[in-house]
Amino acid sequence: MKTQLTFSDIEYAERKRVSRREVFLRKMDVLIPWAELTAVIQPYYYPGKRGRPPIEIETMLRMYFVQLWYNMSDEMTEESIYDSRAMKEFMRIDFHQQSVPDATTLLGFRHLLEQNKLQEKMFQRINAVLEGQGMIWRGGSVIDAVIIEAPSSTKNSAKSRDPEMHQTKKGNEWYFGMKAHAGADAGTGMVHSLTFTAANVADVEEASKLVREDDEFASLDAGYTGIDKRQEVKEDPQLSAIDWRVSPRMGQSRALENALYKDALGHLDLVGQPRWDVWIAYLNSKVRSKVEHSFHVVKNIFAYRKTRYRGLKKNGARLYMLFALANVLRWSWRKDSLGTLAAAA
Q1: 221 phi and psi, to 5 degrees?
Q2: How much of the chain is in helix, strand and coil states, percent to nearest 5?
Q3: Does residue 121 lie within any of the structural domains?
Q4: Chain centroid to CA 94: how far?
Q5: Euclidean distance between the first and final Cα of the chain, in Å?
Q6: Residue ranges making up the domain that contains 78
Q7: Distance between CA atoms of 301 and 321, rounded to whole angstroms?
Q8: Is residue 151 part of a domain?
């Protein structure tokens, strides 16, 4: 532990502006349930009975999260912590007493998590904490999928593309990669279930795996048309009892829109009668949009737009942790908005 301030600490404390990175890392430091997550890893971690004692689990976990948030390689993560004071403070490292764990140590830690499927367990543990805080409700889910592109080039040592990735067409564009299928809470948009497939797998094939046992309804887009007629749904009493709220296809919705006259009171037809089918579809789209917020965090804020590894297993493990951290970030936004409302009141 550091016992006294240095001149550098005093100078840094007098700065006129706090960076967005520092604000973000301080929020995550407070909100992430470190004790819960280290307890998940502890049974699988190195015992340290021989040789040098292992680095503390929390230190490695903090370094791993920095890597995920800024989408960096092992080597770049090590260098960035040396270079960034905000990252160093988040890591709680005193250079007088210890060094940043090197890239090889981070690689070994990441492999330990992947081999024991600990990212999925930490995803579940974080969600349990969020549910205890009232951030995950029950009763309904939103289901959707997002494409994560993979390198399509064959200019590599294997002279081939990743055999577990495939191409698919979305709109007029072709994509090569994988899909992350997500089930999110219909009330808050927090992701509670995930599956991972090649990009050419139809969304509807994974839908039944993304609802919870106590869900009464599921909101889905037009890509899930016919979900209620699938064999795995009809033969399962719990799945068949769910109200599958599938939005109409684009052609159907456009035809309805062309027949409507809209005013400030809602959706009316040409003779002034309510068109409830369009109004219900509109409300369903408002619910479905909540899962897109998590996709935005993972792809745009955490910058995971392309796969970093080969194969579904490694990329799936990374995505479990990214969506868990996205839930925590969205929790921080919720707390900030409530704090703003309380201050205004």
Answers
A1: -90, -175
A2: 50, 15, 35
A3: no
A4: 31
A5: 42
A6: 7-116
A7: 14
A8: yes
